[in-house]
Amino acid sequence: MSPYGRSAINISVRVWSSMACVFVCLAVLVVRLWYLQIEQGAFFRDKSENNRLRTLYIPAARGLILDRNGEVLVRNRPSFNVELVAEDSPDPKQTVQDLALLVGEDPALLQERLTKIGKRRRFEPKLLLRDVSRDVVAQISAQRHRLPGVTISVVPARDYPYGESSAHVLGYIREVSGEQLKSQAFSGYMLGDLVGQYGIESDLERYLRGERGTQEVVVNAFGNKIGEAFRSPDQPGSNVTLTIDRRSQMAADEALQGHKGAVVLMDLSNGDILALASSPRYHPGVFTSELAKGVWAALIDPKENRLSNRALQGVFPPGSVFKIFVAAAALSEGVVTPKEKIRCPGYLKFGKRSFKCHKHSGHGPVNLFEAIVQSCDVYFYTVGQRLGVDRIHHYAADLFGFGEKTGLVDDDEKEGTIPSTAWKEAYFKNPEDKKWYPGETLPVSIGQGAVATTPIQVAHSLAAVLNGGRLVKPRLVKKIVAGDGRVLESAPDQAQVQRTADIDPAILAQLKDAMVGVVEDKRGTGHRAALPKEFGIGVGGKTGTAQVASRESGIKDEDHAWFAGFAPADQPRVVVVALVENGGHGGVVAAPIARKVLAAYFRVPDEIEAAPKPKQRPAKSPKPVVAPATVAAQGRATGEG
Amino acid sequence: MSVFDRRMAAHIDWLLMLITLVICAAGLLVLYSAGYDPETGVDLFGFASVDFASAACLKQALYVVAGLMVMAIAMSIPTQFFFRSASLLYVGSLLLLVAVAAFGVVVNGSRRWLDVGVFNLQPAEFMKFALIVAMARRLARKPPEDGKAYRLGELFVPMIIIAVPMGLIMQQPDLGTALSLGLVGVAQILFVGVRPKALITVLSVLAVLAYPSWLMLHDYQQRRILVLLNPESDPQGSGYHITQSKIAVGSGELFGKGFQEGTQSQLEFLPEHTTDFVFSVLAEEWGFVGSVSIIVLFFFLLSCMLRVAGRARDLFSSLVALGITAQFFAHIVINIGMVIGLMPVVGIPLPLVSYGGSAMLSLMFGLGVLQGVSMRRQMFGER
């Protein structure tokens, strides 16, 4: 027997069974390959394409916002974002730490932002810092080797050449919120997108945003770009031309500086809003970068209420401005004639109560014209009593549009209140409170009590008085032009008339004359609204000084100052409304603001002293608009109730 | 007596030789594509620099040539020489493995190499061959007592012969090599024959031992096995290899993406695409047709090798040939199985195709020994 082993065993059977075993095992591999490559082949082909192709997004430049004359109010500038490709950094946490120290940011905050972004596709850059300064870019570039994975991208950012001016009209853009992303309306948006959140930026978001472009690039496993595959160009947003007149707007903004208040300037022929100012303001650009805690606190401080557009959302009693509409009701209803004189002793006895006129010494006998010019309260108490609250409500609300939204913007507008017996019935729960007492009609007839309105409503309604009773829908957008020059929307030349108050034109003419008197008559309360005489632009209007009810505090706040006016006096083109919250007397505080805005609109100096050549002017106009002595004399008379 | 005579040359298995060369050639083609990098020249081991587009392909070609020389040398060694030196080879390799455990160099967390000055030596590679001859010698000298199949008691010593080196390699840790080592030894025992009762007993014991050995596995090995069961559980970590490899293989579909068109490998989504995952490149670029073709070639290769085992002059030669065949088979099945997601990622190269010098040389040496068995099948009385 061989030492190497005799083949007592049958080798050939064993070879054949081994071969069978090999065959079976390899057959299993073939079956598996068939499953992967044939059965699931298309699926894996897709997956390999997904691996290979990466979609890069090209942000679209947002549309510009222009004023009516084509001046750019909001534009775009290149801005620098700092991003991190975590896969390119051996230790992303350390990199973020180094970056934070370099640019002086809180490392914890950046870390948190990174975690908030969460897991995205491999090699997708994560946004760490938005809109950093060139200095920071230079610092990062210089330290590039210490910051692996940190990249800087250039994207368009909003730029506001006039700063805070018209902030409330323009609104602002801010990163799309988590809730917005969940909603259907924001289906095309991605985390980190900047979205119009307020004002025109929000209302016209769909026009302004444009369409982001995409680019498919071929990448290797390290995310390095190898080539380009498919590209769809970005579509810049459409440009929006507003009805705003930049100069009037800035004049309004400047005039309101230091006040809380609002200004509305409207073209009464077509409803174009020429200026819509609210104060205090905010800078629209602060929202695009992460808000520091203090900044946000200042923005939402309820005392300031900076984010609220007072022209649309500020609800205040209109005070004597309301008398125009009460007068319209009284004349139309025939409860008083223009000539009838009502004696004002400085108060009106009603039951046990005495309702005071703002001029405690009394105006004496006054007719309608004099009552409006001197803003006599007793005259309107009397007339209001004759009318009753429901007739006042009918004219003010049903005919002149008080107490309802003007329709300037989709929402964000307050309605205010015009009281009536039905309103009181519905408003109060307690049966005792539901009854309307005749004594309550008196304050209503001078725009006090429960009467509450917004500056835009006052402009809207006053325009109807000057427009033959036609209530014109105010508008902010003149034109929307797409990136390729196509006009998408264009406001018609004609006004959109919401309804027409059926009032005798003669009555409206009398009211207009009286309002011109308010500014031009020597006893008028609104003379500070007058433009310098030599430019020949007369101004009409009505002052209002609304008492602030301070039931709870007991502290007497300053009155709200109103001026609602128009110009030119003979052929009115624009209405102007100025409101200063707790400003004091309308004629003293609000009327000069209105004058400044009108001067800017008509491109004239608003005061003769400010005229370019004051030395030459006296020859043409020997007297200044208001002699100092007259100011003193009338200053006392301008106080109103 | 000359080492080579005409009768021996007449029995060289030329079909096996041809299939070996065809597989090597296919491997070179795949490597040309997988290692394609026209921008850098090929540095030939510091001796020369050549302008060739694929370093892996060119170097592998040189390894094939060197491998054929090693094969010729192995063919010239009489099979009986291995019978006589089997114990020496086995004990020597075992000592080297112990030395590794004691003084080995740690690379990537495993202690597999011995630093012998010029290069790093991997004793496990020697043990692969040493175990084949040691087992063949043991089984040839102690065939089943009944002349048909082993009883349980007779299996004890062979099991120890397998288990000791397996255990040493397992703790390095090198799961793939240990596994293939065990498979080869077991294949040799099964080739001779085991009584069903003994087989069932052994399998039961192994099943009972499976849990403690699972606990002995390193974390990364446990994870690899767990990830195999559910690769999507860890798409960026351990599962990345499997996921990307499956995408590569599957996306090849019927005819493949074409030579050098495989995005998974060319864009480097596929890890280790010239070595362990070379089959994915082949499957991606050549499709189902190509991958099945190479499997068919492997089937022919293994069949030829088994035929050599069947025609061998004696049981020892037969078992040596069978062991070498089993080693090829284990590597093929484990590698392809791993690439297509049927087996854990254990780092076993695909024989004759994966890029690598020492693997090529040791495989060619094995084929040479096998050809030697074939050549000497009718030589009797040789001492």
Textual characterization of the structure:
The complex is a heterodimer of chains A (641) and B (383). With 641 residues, chain A is of the alpha+beta class. Chain A has 2 domains: 57-242, Penicillin-binding protein 2a (Domain 2), CATH 3.90.1310; 247-637, Beta-lactamase (3-Layer(aba) Sandwich). In chain A, 36% of the residues lie in helices and 21% in strands. Chain A is built from 24 helices and 23 strands. In chain A, α13 crosses α15 and α13 crosses α16. Chain A is elongated, with a radius of gyration of 36 Å. In chain B, a hairpin with a 4-residue loop joins β4 and β5. The radius of gyration of chain B is 21 Å and the shape is globular. At the A-B interface, α1 and α2 of A face α5, α7, α10, α12 and α13 of B.
Low-confidence segments of chain B, ≥5 residues, pLDDT <50? none
- What's the average pLDDT of chain A? 85
CATH superfamily of the largest domain in chain A: DD-peptidase/beta-lactamase superfamily
Shape of chain A: elongated
Q: Record the strand order, biggest sheet of chain B.
A: 3-4-5
- Second-tier CATH architecture of the largest domain in chain A: 3-Layer(aba) Sandwich
Report the sheet with the most strands of chain A, covering strand number, pairing sense and barrel closure: 7 strands, mixed
Q: In total, how many domains does the architecture of chain A comprise?
A: 2
Q: Roughly how much helix do the residues of chain A carry, as a percent range? A: 25-40%
Short description:
Chain A is α+β, with helices and mostly antiparallel strands and 641 residues long.
Helices, strands, pairings?
The complex is a heterodimer of chains A (641) and B (383).
Chain A: H1 11-39, H2 41-52, E1 53-58, E2 65-66, E3 72-84, H3 92-103, H4 107-117, E4 126-132, H5 134-142, E5 150-159, H6 167-170, E6 172-175, H7 178-182, E7 194-198, H8 199-203, H9 205-208, E8 213-219, E9 225-232, E10 239-242, H10 246-256, E11 261-267, E12 273-279, H11 293-300, H12 310-313, H13 323-333, E13 342-344, E14 347-350, E15 353-356, E16 364-366, H14 368-373, H15 377-387, H16 389-399, H17 421-427, H18 431-434, H19 441-445, H20 455-466, E17 470-472, E18 477-481, E19 487-490, E20 497-500, H21 505-520, E21 540-546, E22 560-567, E23 574-580, H22 586-602, H23 617-620, H24 628-637
Parallel strand pairs in A: 2-10
Antiparallel strand pairs in A: 1-8, 2-3, 3-4, 3-5, 6-7, 8-9, 10-18, 11-12, 11-23, 13-16, 14-15, 17-20, 18-19, 21-22, 22-23
Chain B: H1 6-10, H2 14-34, E1 42-44, E2 48-50, H3 55-76, H4 79-103, E3 105-107, E4 110-115, E5 120-121, H5 123-141, H6 156-170, H7 175-192, H8 196-216, H9 219-229, H10 239-251, H11 263-266, H12 278-311, H13 315-339, H14 357-375
Antiparallel strand pairs in B: 1-2, 3-4, 4-5
